[in-house]
Structures
1.
Amino acid sequence: MQKVPPPDIAVTIGPPVMMKFCAETTRPYGIKTLASLNTIMIDGTGMCGGCRVSIGGKTKFVCVDGPEFDAHLVDWDGMLMRLGTYREIEKEAHDRCHLEMQIEKLGAQGNGARVPEKESAK
Ligand code: FES
């Protein structure tokens, strides 16, 4: 059987949890791995702070300092924790959006359904 040489570099792009485990897969083999963290950017201007990550113990902004970083230096757990900060609010907004779409669809079908006023609009 022919021996295949290890790759010189691996590049991971996608959901943060997938990139974390890609980095953990290549780490024991010493394969240089780049992670593209552009998926966590929000405004891309360096002003919102949403893309702040710890790389090798130093704070970096993905949109200013990256978006590619050494995947073995990314604090994946810290990044994943920050990304979950608004999970509950995002789920509520997502559910409300789908509910409103269903109500509008029913209204368009002549069922007399109306979208309820939002709390903030009262
Ligand atoms: S995306 Fe807002 S500071 Fe980087």
2.
Amino acid sequence: MIPSVVGFSGDEEFSGTQALHQAVRNPKNTLEGFRKLIGKKFEEVKVPSDVTHPDMVSKGGVPAYKVTFKDQEHIFTVPEVVTKQLRHILEEAQTYLGSKVTGAVLAVPTYFTEHQREVLAKSAVDAGINVLQIIQEPVAAALAYNFGQSHPIKGGVQDKTALVLDMGASSFDITVLSVRAGIYTILETAHDEALGGEAFTEELVQLVAQEFKKKTKVDVTGNKKGLLKIRTAAEITKKQLARSTSAPCSAESVAEGLDYHGSINRLRFEIACSKLFARCNELIEHILEKAQLTTGAIDEILLVGGATRMPKFQSKVRDIFPETTIRVDEESDEVIAVGCAAQASLIAGFEKEDIIASTKENITVTPHTVKPIGVVGANDQFFTIIPNHTPLPAKRIFEFGQTADGQQEVYFALYEGEQDPLPPKKEKVEKHDIGSDDEDEEEEDLPSKPTYHKTTLLAEVVLKDLPAGAKAGSLKIEATVQVDVTSKIIITLREKKSGKQVRAESA
Ligand SMILES: Nc1ncnc2c1ncn2[C@@H]1O[C@H](COP(=O)(O)OP(=O)(O)OP(=O)(O)O)[C@@H](O)[C@H]1O
Ligand SMILES: [Mg+2]
């Protein structure tokens, strides 16, 4: 993993880990967080300006960093910094591989605009990278987890729906993604910039600052440099707390020459972050509501981003989805890169035009069914023909028979389905005892797959004059249901023996 950091010190320019290491010593010349500024105008960017951040100025309307390099003031625009970072990544990759990198797949957040993609592509080209394709981060995650794709041994693609939960440093991004016949479609996205790993570190910084004050009587809250030292220490402590229930935290010369040496237990950290965790839950519930999905309709949860390693985060997700498969990768912060690499190896031999054509679909949210479309059986039971969240146009063909001897007419109707209400949730009491993240889940009724009942009649048709004297079930009637991109429904019924057929459309 190469952190997205670029730094300058004396006559030297650094990238990645080396740049990160000088961050505390030389914060004015350490550039971080530029990835999300790609393609933005200077006015759109909120720039913190103090002793712990580099100065930012506008250069031709584009945000740029003012740094000291080789004893002179230099101004580097965001795209220029991105180029420096990408060049560094390219060099590292070539050193590691011992060969030239011939092409690369890049991933961007779902909320990146076309313009942002173009600026990124240009920065990459300037860095000497042959950009094969730019894909969306959740799609890269799905590829890395091989979500819904054929199994190397069992084979067979599957139609499924995933919730991708990506918590990185600066935001929490959620995506509902479906896979139908191996093709990914992004159905819904939600995004909260107040909920990244940094927000969690910040809570820990506040905790440590309080402790420091208790121990030394020195208030560090207004001291930006002191807080930066605590933040660097807290970042390490936070990561350790993912593995153990308590972790040391040490920072030297925080304020007035005084050090801080202490230890933080996980429970305290989690309580301090309880509002943040609650907000994560709200965002998950919000996106499910927006997508009109219940928890049971999610087949898999794909965890992405370093901050999803927090045990409390995982146990909260488990609480919301008691039954769903949660895919976690030890290296959750590398999942997107792995997905890009997989895609690159897949398309390396393709023609450029084919690659572009194959990915246009991913750029915007494709039209899709919102509610399931189905037929009604005995006892008014609803059977789904085309599930909700199926990309349009869609087509399904199936066969059925007449139900009575001598029946010469069949009636066929399609309805929209509405989900049946779920049984009420049991009240949950949050317990706060150390190390019992996993045990504090109480017995709960597990929600099963959602069931539906019919609501609106969408289209109906009668196929008449069927061959006389046929026994129940002996005739084969083929139904073709098509839904076009405007959601218009077309039904065709055909009796296979006589070839008699009828067609109807929705209003
Ligand atoms: N073990 C851990 N426990 C808690 N947080 C962690 C752990 N490991 C990494 N993190 C946090 O994950 C974040 C970095 O994750 P990641 O590398 O996925 O972010 P990013 O993709 O660079 O950021 P963004 O998606 O916001 O642009 C940091 O805030 C880091 O503190
Ligand atoms: Mg990320």
